[in-house]
Amino acid sequence: MEMRHVKTFCAIVKHGGFSKAALALGYAQSTVTGHIKALENDLHIPLFDRLGKKVLLTKAGHQFHPYALELLAIYEKAQEIPQNNDYLEGTLSITSNESLAVYRLPQLLRTYKQQNPKVNIVLETTTNEHAMKKLHEGETDVIFLIDESIAHNDFIIRTFCNETFGWILPIHSPVQENPFRLLQDTQFIFTEQSCGYRPMVDRFLRQSGNILEKTFETSNVEVIKQAVMCELGISILPYIVVQENCQKEQIRFQPIETPAVIQSHVIYHKSRWISPVLQSFLSLLERG
C-alpha cells in the first residue's frame, strides 16, 4: 500500500469526487482512478460505489477512512523528524478563534519561534465548530477556543487561560450608570451566533429580563470595539480583547455579574501521534 494512494483516497472523500480530487492534487483523473484501483487491490476491498457520475463510499470505505486519515497524518509528521539534534524542523498547524489568535497567541508563538527557528507556523482563525471539525479530521495539530464547556472523547482538553468578561462601554459613559439603562437609548452589539461565548452572553441578557429592541451583529471583534468607541452601541467581550484600549482610555470595561470568567482551552487529538514539533509546543504551554 503506497501513501500516495492513501492521500488520493482521502482527497476524494474530502472533495467529493474523483475529478475534484484530481484538480486539488494536480493529477489527471486517470491517475486518480489508477491510485484507487491499486489501493482497492492492496486492501482486497471495494472503497467506492460508482453510480453513474456519483461516487459514494462503500461500508468498507467508511471504515477505512479514519485509518487512512491517521496513516496520512503519521506519514506527514514523520517527515518532520529532524536530520540533526540542533533544531526541530517541520510545520506546526494551529487553529484558533479570533480573540485568542490576536490577543493571546502572538507572544506565545514568538517564544516558540525563538526556540524553534526552523519550524514553520500556520495559524488559521475560524469558529469553534469548524476548529473542532478540522482537529477531528487531522487537518490541524492543535486548537485554541473560548467556550463555557467542551467535552469530546477523542480530544485532550486543557485549560489555557481564564478569560474575564465584561461590558464594553464608550469611555465617556457615566461610571455609575447601569449598562442596561444605556440600552434604552443605544444598541447592543453581538458577536456572531457561532462565537464560542455567544451562548453565555445570550443567557446573561435573557436572565436580566431586559428586552433588546435595537441590536447589531458582527463576526469581527475589532468592528465591535470601533463601534463602541464611536458610540454606536455597547457590548460584552473578554477583557483581553480591550485591555490595550482601556489602558489608552479609549474604552471602559465593567465586569459583568456571574459568570464573569470563562476558560479558554487548548485541545489536541488523543489518538494521533504527537510529533516533536507539537510536543515542543505543548511543553512550552505546560511551562506557562
From TrEMBL:
InterPro entries: LysR_HTH_N, LysR_subst-bd, WH-like_DNA-bd_sf, WH_DNA-bd_sf. It comes from Bacillus toyonensis. Keywords: DNA-binding, Transcription, Transcription regulation. Belongs to the LysR transcriptional regulatory family. SUPFAM superfamilies: Periplasmic binding protein-like II (SSF53850), Winged helix' DNA-binding domain (SSF46785). The keyword tRNA-binding does not apply. The keyword Mitochondrion does not apply. CDD domains: PBP2_LTTR_substrate (cd05466). This is HTH-type transcriptional regulator CzcR. It comes from the Bacteria. Residues 1-58 form the HTH lysR-type domain. PROSITE patterns: HTH_LYSR (PS50931). GO terms for molecular function: DNA-binding transcription factor activity; transcription cis-regulatory region binding.
